[in-house]
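Reopening this one. Same input as before:
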Amino acid sequence: MNFLIELTKRFAYHPEDKDEALFLKQLIFIVSLSCCLCGLIWGAMYYWFLGTGFTMMLPWIFVLIVGTAIPLAHFRKNHYILVYAQLTCITWIPALIQWSLGNINDSGIVMMWSFLGPIGALFFLKRRFSLYWIVQFLMIVIVSVIIEPRLTNDAQHASETYRHTFYLMNIVAPSIVVFGASFYFVSNMIKQKDLYFSLLKSLERKNKEITEIMNVLEIKNKEVTESITYAKRIQSAIMPTDAQVKEILRDMFILYQPKDIVAGDFYWVKKHDENLFIGACDCTGHGVPGAMVSVICNGALNRCVEEFELENPGMILDKTRELVVKEFEKSDVLVQDGMDAAILKINGNKIIYAGANNPLWLIRNNSNQIEEIKGNKQAVGATRNPQAFSSHELELEKGDSIYLFTDGFVDQFGGEREKKFG
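Same output, byte for byte:
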């Protein structure tokens, strides 16, 4: 029994088969085996009651054709070979038996089997194809009625036992086949319905869980966003406003557009005695981590000018590096964060520049050329073999323009190819 069940599951199996195809393959295999068994029994019964002859051979011809189609369909992974063989044989061979035996009464209404053709077409083929098979059945019935008087009656000498036996067999057996196929079909539908219902309930539960998680995430996101927004107020407090900058230096502009609410980039403007210090700084990291480093680096720059009274930008970067490294050494883990920066001191028409990876651009009045003064190739922070930062002294003329910047703008990805802007 287990072998038969496994054989049914493996019939014409293909890895890409969907559930519906698998079900139809199993169903046609079961129906065909059942009909072949009936064919063997019917052939033996005709031989028992009628002896050898054409009638006895017809059920066995059915078994031969359908039995051959079973392995052919299996090895070609195409169950429709068996479907068309089964439908053709179950429709026409009972009709040939009917015409061989004579009238309907003497045949035990064997033509009942032919009706399984259009019923099977409803199961295995598209509905419009089933019309073709019901037309065949109706044609068989009409032809049987018309030619009945002209048929030779091979069963005219058969006993009443023969007639009663085949009446019973030709009513019960097709009914069992139809009921069995329908039961198998309906059971599969109920199984699929239960499975879909179970999946639906599972999806509803998962959807409820996801909704609850989304609500929690929304609350957490709101709390985090509010905290970061408050952190922005703290970061903004360490940088002067545009109005405050304009009071110090009129012909100056600042383009500051953080990608996130807070950023690792910041600008530094400091007036001390007769000197004006300006810086464009890019701290390690983005968002909140970068903003936290920016607070430390900004504080170190202010201490260099106010506490240590340094005026040379190169020395300011050296001291800032020392302060930042010392601050991070307090941690139990290795912290190598820091910043790239361009620092400028302005005193009258004289400027002194020092840079940590970030350059200074100078455009002279009435000139289209950009003069680039490069900084040192090292960051302000823990580095291997740190060198003293170099200072560059320049003299400005009226109409000259100076630009300090970080890599925040040129490093943005975009465009059709998602390339960096710079």
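So the earlier flakiness isn't reproducible anymore. For the record, The chain has a mean pLDDT of 84.
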